[in-house]
Amino acid sequence: MSTKLKTIICLLRNDLRYHDNEVLHWAHLNADFVIPLYCLDPRHYSGTWHYSFPKTGPHRLKFLLQTLHDLKDSLKSVGSELVVSRGEPEKVITNLISQLGKENVKAVALQQEATREETDVERAVEKSCQVPVHKVWGSTLYHKEDIPFRIPQLPNVFTEFRKRTENQSRVRPTLSMPSRLKPLPTGVDPGYIPTMEEYGMKEPAQDPRSAFPYGGGERQALARIQHYFWDHDYIASYKETRNGLIGPDYSTKFSSWLALGCLSPRKIYEEIKRYEKERKTNQSTYWVIFELLWRDYFKFVALKFGDRLFYLSGLLGKHREWQENQKLFDAWREGKTGVPFVDANMRELATTGFMSNRGRQNVASFLTKDLKLDWRLGAEWFEHLLIDHDVCSNYGNWLYCAGVGTDPRPARKFNMVKQGLDYDAQGDYIRSWIPELQAIKGGAIHTPWALSSSMLMKCEVTLGHTYPMPVVKAPEWAKHIRTQERGKSGRGPEQRQQTRGVDFYFSSSSQKYKK
Ligand code: FAD
Fold first, then answer.
1. Which of 17, 61, 385, 436 could form a disulfide with 218 if both were Cys (CB 3.0 to 4.6 A apart)?
2. Which residues neighbour 389 within 8 Å (Cβ) at sequence distance 6 or greater?
3. If 0-12 CB within 10 Å is exposed, 13-18 middle and 19+ buried, where does residue 227 land?
C-alpha cells in the first residue's frame, strides 16, 4: 500500500467517459493517485418507487455493462483502471478509505445529480466517508452556475428559460484530459464487471428492427457523432427527420450515451459549432442544441421542484381524477390496446429498449389522457425499460404529457389516429411491429376497427381474436379514419356507431387519487 502520497477516489455514476470528465480532471490535478470507482448500487436493481417494477431492465443493464467495459479499456489506455464494486457507494467508499488509511485519502470527488435517490447517495457518502467530498456539476450543456436564474426562480415555461439562457449564457468549453491519468495506489483490487446472469437477467437478443442497435460506451458515442455529423451529414436535415419512427438515422440517438454520461453534451455542442463552421449552418444544426436545452431544462426543473417530480399531482399540485385499471394498464404495456399506433410503439419499447420521441409523446398522452391512468405507471414502466432512462427527462416529460408538469397547455391531447397517419402515412411502422395486421394496406392499418368485415376477413384479421378491439375510442379520431376500400379519409362503419364521449371496452373502476 502506498503511503504519504495522497489519493482521490472518484465516484463515477452518470459520467462514464474519459473525455471532458471534470471529476477525473480535477482529481488528476489534485492528487498523486486517482481511483476511478464505479459501484453497482443494489438500489438500482430494486423496484420502482410506487409500482415496484424492476428498476433496471435487461436492455439498460446490457448497455451499462458494455459501458463499464469500454470505460475500463479507456482508463487502461491512459495508465489507470476502473475499479468496479457491487454495493452501496457510501459503504464501498468507507471500506476503501479504511483500507487505504484515512490519512492517505485527500477527498472523494463526484458529479452531482438532481433527484432524491441520487442526492441521498451524495449525502450518505459525505456523512460516512470522513474526508472532504468535492462535488462538480457536469451533466448539462449549460452549467448550473451559468444560467441567468437562481434555481428557485427558474421559469415554469421552457421557452422563457431557453431564450434567456441562449441570450445571456455561454457553454463552457470541454476539458482537455491528460494523456496519462494519475495511477491507482498499489494494492487496490479493481474488482470485475459482472455478467447479466449474475443479475438474474438474460441478454436481450438484438432485433433487426431496432432504431437503436448500438452498444454502450464513449467509443460508440463518439463514433455516432462521426457517423451522424461528418460521414453522412444527417445533422443538416435533423429538423425534418426528427419525428421519424423507423431506423437509426432519423434522429441523433445520443440520449442513451448522454444518460450514462458516455457523451458530454458540451462535446456535442463543440462538434455542432465545428460542423456549422466547416460545412453548414441551418435550422437543423441549431435544433439539436434546442433539444439539448430541453434536457437541461428538465434537470433544472428537478432541482427546483424536488420530490414533486414524482407526485401524482405533479409540479404545481394539480388534483385530477385518475383511474385505476390493471387490465387497461396491461393492455398498454403489452402493446395490446387495439390501437395500432400505441401498440407498435409499446412493442418496440419492450423489444428494443428504445422508442422515438414521437412515439413516447403519443403513448404517454394515450395512457394519461385517453385511459386516464396514473401517469406514474407509465413513467415507471419507461424507467424499467428505456436504455436511455434519465430520471429528469423521463419524469419531466411524463409530467408534461400528463398535463401536471410544465406544459403551458396542459389539456393538450394527442389524437392517436391523426398522429399515426401524419407520421406513418402508409403504415410501414405499424406493419413492422404488428405482424398480425400486415395484410392491411396503406393508412387503413391505423384503424382496423373501421374496416368492413369482408375486408378484415380478406386480411385475415379477426378483431378480438387475432388483434384486440380498441380498449378505448376517442371521438376526435373519427374524422381521420381511413377505410381501405376508399383509400382516403372517409366515414367507416365504426364511425356511425360512435357515441359521444370516450368509449371504454374494459370496465374501469374510477377512483379518486389517494395521495
Ligand atoms: P434527438 O431528437 O436526436 O435529440 C437530441 C437530444 O436532445 C436527445 O438525445 C436528448 O438528450 C435531448 N432531447 C430531445 N428531446 C428531449 C425531450 N423531450 N426532453 C429531454 N431531452 C430531450 N429522454 C431521455 O434522454 N431519457 C428519458 O428517460 C426520456 N423519457 C421520455 C419520456 C417521455 C414520455 C417523453 C415524451 C420523452 C422522453 N425523453 C427522454 C425525451 C426524448 O424522447 C428522447 O430524449 C429522444 O427520443 C431520444 O432520441 P434521440 O437521442 O435520437 O433524440
1. 17
2. 60, 259, 382, 383
3. middle
Taking Cα atoms as reference points, which of 335, 325, 446 lies closest to residue 385? 335
Q: Which of 294, 357, 391 to mutate to test the pocket of ligand 1 (most atoms within 8 A of CB)?
A: 357
Q: Where are the domains of the chain?
A: 7-138
311 grid coordinates: 407526485
Check residue 409 and give its pLDDT.
Answer: 83
C-beta of 384 in contact with ligand 1 (< 6 A):
no
In this prediction, residue 492 has a pLDDT band, given cuts at 50, 70 and 90, of very low
Give dist(CA 442, CA 446) in Å, integer.
9
* pTM of structure: 0.94
pLDDT of residue 116: 96
Ligand 1 center–CA 394 separation, angstroms: 8
Residues 115, 96: Cα–Cα separation, whole Å: 26
H or E segment and range at residue 284: helix 283-305
Residue 292 beta carbon below 6 angstroms from any ligand 1 atom: yes
438 lines ligand 1 (CB under 6 A): no
Evaluate whether 30 touches 183 at the Cβ level (below 8 Å). Answer: no
What is the DSSP code string of 97-127? HHHH-GGGEEEEEEE---SHHHHHHHHHHHH
Residues found in the chain: 515
Query: Closest Cα to atom 44, ligand 1: which residue?
Result: 357
If phi > 0 it is left, if psi is from -120 to 50 it is alpha, else beta; for residue 458 that is alpha
**Residue 354 DSSP one-character state:** -
What is the mean predicted confidence (pLDDT) over 485-513? Answer: 40
Q: Where are the alpha helices (DSSP H) in 209-282?
A: 218-225, 238-241, 255-260, 265-278
224-260 pLDDT, tens digit each: 999 999 999 999 999 999 999 999 999 999 999 999 9
Q: Which three cell numbers, joined as nine digits, stand for 178?
A: 491528460
Q: Which CATH superfamily is domain 7-138 in?
A: HUPs (3.40.50.620)
213, 206 contact by CB (below 8 A): yes
Residue 139 CB–ligand 1 contact under 6 Å = no
Res 332 pLDDT > 80 = yes
- Asked if residues 184 and 80 have their Cβ atoms less than 8 Å apart, the reply is yes
Between the CA of residue 344 and those of 193, 198, 327, 334, what are the distances in Å? 35, 32, 18, 10
